[in-house]
Design brief:
seven-stranded mixed β-sheet, 291 residues, alpha/beta, binds fe (ii) ion, 20% strand, globular, five-stranded mixed β-sheet, Purple Acid Phosphatase, chain A, domain 2, single chain
């Protein structure tokens, strides 16, 4: 069995611990799953673009996971590509450098079972940063080198919500222009699957010959307006055969947090604006990392 565990949208913070218990439960489930690797598909933080401490906290939190761990960034880690949902947190060089310092890299290529998995930094797509061009060349090289293996692309944001023809810029998915540049490369390169987080919702369907798998979040439920099913959880995917087989990890006791309730129905715009409510001291990452 060539199993990979996917964890997405952790939204951890040393000052705002709303989702720490869900993360602990997911860690236990991931460690019990005995997978070849754990892939973390972005939004590890709440305020990562502006907080060294939060990025460091998230990196140390991942040390609870056994075995190989591969993390790629989301908008709450390195900022959004423009125009973005928060103009104060647009991806830039220093934010990318902060991520690299904490996690080592913002992309990966991994052969598992019959497949090649290619993880991208979604926040570069449409950023106009020099790293965007460099990543596209890197991706093309690794798709071309798959030598007949089906390729699964892994990134924080979905390529689109309903169809590739969507033409309005949105913070919910990859924007139209970078999507138009990316899709022909995927189709030419034999990409069979796209695995994404960000929307905090589950969905698994084939569009134009590519299977699009949306991952549930570890933190809070997404909006039902995006077509998927708002969901808390974590998935394992078996890549041993030509068809990837998806199963849900058991997460007993995980709480399906409602973001509007947490933010007191508009009293706070962002979670980072809320009064501090750190994780319980006895559960801190430092203590756990020392185990
Ligand atoms: Fe998220
Ligand atoms: Fe996100």
């Amino acid at each position: 069995m060539s199993k990979i565990v996917f964890l997405s949208d952790l939204h951890l913070s040393p000052t705002h611990g709303f989702f720490w218990d869900n993360f602990r439960i997911a860690c236990d489930a991931a460690n019990d799953a005995m997978a070849e690797a754990v892939i973390v598909t972005g939004d590890l933080c709440i305020n990562g673009p502006d907080s060294d401490e939060e990025m460091d906290f998230a990196a140390r939190a991942l040390s609870r996971l056994r075995g190989q761990v591969l993390a790629i960034p989301g908008n709450h880690d390195v900022g959004d590509e423009p125009p973005g949902q928060d103009p104060a947190q647009i991806v830039d060089g220093p934010r990318l450098a902060r991520w690299d310092e904490a996690f080592g890299a913002d992309r990966f290529a991994l052969d598992v079972g019959a497949w090649r998995l290619i993880g991208l930094n979604a926040q570069l797509l449409g950023s106009s940063l020099p790293q965007e061009v460099e990543q596209m060349a890197w991706m093309t090289q690794h798709i071309d080198g798959a030598e007949g293996r089906p390729v699964a692309l892994v990134l924080h944001k979905p390529l689109f919500i309903e169809t590739a023809a969507e033409d309005q810029p949105t913070a919910s998915s990859i924007n139209p222009a970078p999507r138009a540049a990316l899709l022909p490369l995927l189709e030419a390169g034999g990409v069979k699957m796209v695995i994404s987080g960000h929307l905090h919702a589950s969905r698994d369907r084939v569009v134009d010959g590519i299977r699009h798998l949306w991952l549930p979040a570890l933190a809070f439920l997404g909006s039902a307006s995006h077509g998927g099913t708002p969901a808390i959880g974590a998935l394992a995917v078996d890549f041993s055969g030509p068809e990837a087989v998806v199963t849900e990890l058991p997460m007993p006791g995980a709480v399906a947090h409602d973001l509007a309730v947490l933010k007191e129905h508009g009293r706070y715009k962002f979670l980072r604006d809320m009064p501090p409510c750190p994780p319980p001291a006895e559960q801190t990452v430092l203590d756990d990392a020392a185990e």
